[in-house]
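Thread title: Can someone regenerate the structure for this chain?

I was given the following input by a collaborator and told the matching structure tokens would be attached. They weren't. Posting the sequence so someone can regenerate them.
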Amino acid sequence: MTKFRKLGRPAAHRVSMLKTMVSQLVKHERIETTVAKAKEVRRLADRMVQLGKDGTLAAARNAASFVRGDDVMHKLFTELAYRYKNREGGYTRLLRTRIRIGDAAPMAYIER
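Best answer:
Regenerated them for you:
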């Protein structure tokens, strides 16, 4: 049983792409991507918000090893931690939007 989607990329490229997408999601609070990528980003983004809510030094180091940018770290541990302090999960929403013209891939917004 596969625990994650491979997204047709080598491991290093996939991890790099997902780190960037999670960081951009935290920074901009809404990105458009394919449905498969959005479902993977949702898993990781929810985990980063959980680390932000934890607020410990260990959680900050774990999050810093994944997200990119000091502004993203600050937003995770201040604004988002406060916004979701009473919520137990489900920090992201997936909204299917359209079919991409070039390759007919289903697209979706993922947002906080």
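The chain has one domain: 11-111.
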